[in-house]
Amino acid sequence: MMRALYTAATGMIAQQYNMDTISNNLANIDTQGFKGNQARFQDLIYETLRAPGAPVGASVVPTGQDVGLGVKIASSEKNFNQGSLQQTGNPLDVAIEGDGFFQVTLPEGTAAYTRDGSFKRDANGTLVTADGYLLSPQITVPQNATQVNVGADGTVTALIPGSQLPQTLGQVSLVRFTNPAGLSPLGKNLFTQTGASGAPVISQPGINGAGTLQQGFLENSNVQVVNEIVNMIVAQRAYEANSKAIATSDQMLSTAVQIVR
Q: What are the sequence ranges of the domains in the chain?
């Protein structure tokens, strides 16, 4: 019975983590480019009471006897499925349709990656994120530029007064990873490379498996509200079932103690 108490406790701890994950997903329903998390579970070690194949006289037992000791959190896996695209009409809003990330430069000079393409111009006209991180490679839009255009292939052009033809300002590149689920989230819609993600592969949009760009659009969160609500109900019921197992084990222990008395 004491084993049941601790086993059920691991189930409650796991479902609490699951609920934390679901809550974070729901909190970021309106976060641009957000990718939902999903908790993954693993069973714990087993206490073997009788091994399968153990000798019994001239024969062996066909099946063993063991008891599990609970559950643990194996991982929290990011879902990088495409979110829906929302039209904004802002020429500096750029969505990725397909695979890839924008690369930005953090203040310490390291690279980070994001699906949030809501870019702004800083005091120098350079494209930056909402937190002021520079888009890499850097693209500067002259102050007097008009009709800024971002092509599906990442080519950035604009009309400059005195010139009849659009002037090319730069090229937006996309970065892909062998295992994007291995990226480390930083917050602020940013990810960083890890040993599990693989090395970044930089390419032009629309080439080598990279997605294309859609100007005037932003990618919404890929969290599905209905799925998260269902997952929340399942997690709540699993938590209640484990708490009931603890209460039942406690009653059985209480009964055993009273019998002894």
A: 2-80+223-260, 85-219
Residue 204's alpha-carbon distances to 18, 120, 134, 173, 210, in angstroms, are 38, 21, 18, 5, 7
Q: Are 143 and 125 in contact (CB under 8 A)?
A: yes
Instruction: Dump pLDDT digits (tens) for 214-246.
Output: 999 999 999 999 999 999 999 999 999 999 999
Instruction: Give CA separation, 176 vs 89, 111, 113, 207, 219, in Å.
Output: 27, 13, 10, 11, 17
Task: Please check whether residue 140 is in contact with residue 167, taking contact to mean a CB–CB distance below 8 angstroms.
Answer: no
Given phi > 0 = left and psi -120 to 50 = alpha, else beta, which region is 216? left
Is residue 44 within 8 A of residue 72, CB to CB? The reply is yes
Q: Residue 26 region, left (φ>0) first, then alpha (ψ -120 to 50), else beta? A: alpha
Q: Tokens for 215?
A: 């100007």
Identify the bridge partners of residue 55 per DSSP, sorted by sequence position. 60
Quick one: pLDDT at residue 260?
A: 61
Report pLDDT digits (tens) over 34-83: 999 999 999 999 888 888 888 877 788 888 888 899 999 999 999 999 99
User: What one-letter code names the amino acid at 189?
Assistant: N
Where is 222: in which H helix or E strand?
none
148-179 pLDDT, tens digit per residue, is 999 999 999 999 987 888 999 999 999 999 99
Q: For residue 11, is it left (φ>0), alpha (ψ between -120 and 50) or beta? A: alpha
